[in-house]
Amino acid sequence: MEANGQARPRLAFVVIGSIAAAMLAAGIALGLRVSGNDTVVLPGAVTYSEAVAGTWQRVNPLFAGANEVDADLSALVFSGLVRAAKDGKVIPDLAADLPEISDGGTTYTFRIRANARWHDGEPVTSRDVAFTVRLLQDPDFDDPAMAEGWNGVTVETPDDSTVVIRLRQPSAPFLSRSATVGILPEHLLGGKGAQALESDPFNARPVGSGPYRLESLDAQAATLAANTSYYLGRPGIDRIVLRFYPDEPQAIRAFAAGETDGVYLRGPRTRAELDDVREVGGKQVSVATRPVLAMLYLNNSNSLFRDERVRQALSLAVDRKQLLDEVFQGVGTATASPVVPGTWAYDPDADVIAPDLSRARVLLQEAGWTPHPTTGILVRQGQEFRFTIRTDNAPERVALANAVARQLEPLGIRASVASTTFSVLRRDFLQERKYEAAVVFWDQGPDPDLYFGWHSSQLGAAGLNLANFEDAVIDDLIARGRTSTDPEIRLDTYRQIQDVWQGIQPSLVLGATGAVVVHPGWLRNAEPGVLFTSASRFVDVHRWAR
């Protein structure tokens, strides 16, 4: 756990829960209608329906990290003090404005909107925020990544509308990574701890302050009605229906058969499945960038990769657009930048993705690598340029590793691919840094802070600096970017990091993964931005309209 209390980004190895178990949990509320909801849907009301893979378990923002459908529903039902906009900038939500920041960046003062109301009509107050933070800090709360952002944080409530949050150390990522958490109603849940809340009936009959209120929920679908008292204005779509399917292929078939207006596809799909989606008439098909970077980690302590000219050469040998098309069917974004494309800190001018084999060969020769006259394999001081790319057994990661290996062959570099379970990969190779290269997906999240992955303090088995990378300039820039609360200083800092990165290539960013969002042609203002989570597609749902 990091001393400054800032939640760290996660390695994005997706753990898929049992659909059968989820269906069983949902079955408890089969046919359940949410009480206390006086929403009236008038004739001619506008309804949007969407097919999603999976089903609900607990509609509660504190548990949304364990289930993406729960996260979707929580994003519609609940609100945080602030939220991440489509480009990752932090914008007000329950708070009327961005917070006042004082005491050297450690004190955040929020003021809750006067017209913020729970779905039952009660006002949202500072006590609700303090109650939610107490739950996050409860020793029984079972999401370490979410809890870590609140470690050591204190909350004061001088009046009903004012919340003062004090951090132990300055942390600019606090707003986007922690203050966006959905707030829970103290007047309905007060006195309950995190453990009791896990099985509380509230999770099937949630009362939030967000743009939609839950109208009905069962194993097949969730129906949500527009919150007519929403503080940002009544949503333009009267009703949203999320229909649940066991997996994405079944969701695609249901959408293609006309069962829903739209479909959301989180995972890699075959070209045939994507063609089925694109062939449905009258639809808008969007490929949204996710902040999950596909990485070829290079162990900088290995003799093969200590020379930055070698790392630059490998980057110049990789055709990222071809990788994107071959492995991910074009669903994603070709990039070599550690800052996610489409976000506020991204600099397209510092993102070099075009392959250049001629320049790569020059750099390798300068580093002492020359082709063997018989085999063509690069040799330096009698050593052939051969290494192993480690990865886990996920098909897309194995395919990506093999594709990278093939692209390095024209340079005279021979890479073999070895896959294993993720637990073995992490324990025996990554954590101990006993690998040469590895294909790993890194979830950067909504903030460009690179501390956990690339600062030298994160070297060693306890840290996440998997590349064994150390650079004083990068260290200084990372420290400045994560402690300054001035947006212009942060922007300049991350632009400098991207520029330096291209020259030293600590490891290879191969691309940003993506998701497919399909909406009907009549739905306006629903274009997705960067999907920091799947639920980010609903960030401006109150602006959607026909």
Automatic annotation (TrEMBL):
Keywords: Membrane, Signal, Transmembrane, Transmembrane helix, Transport. Pfam families: SBP_bac_5 (PF00496). Residues 89-455 form the Solute-binding protein family domain. SUPFAM superfamilies: Periplasmic binding protein-like II. The chain crosses the membrane at residues 12-32. PANTHER family: OLIGOPEPTIDE-BINDING PROTEIN APPA, PERIPLASMIC BINDING COMPONENT OF ABC TRANSPORTER. Belongs to the bacterial solute-binding protein 5 family. This is Peptide ABC transporter substrate-binding protein.
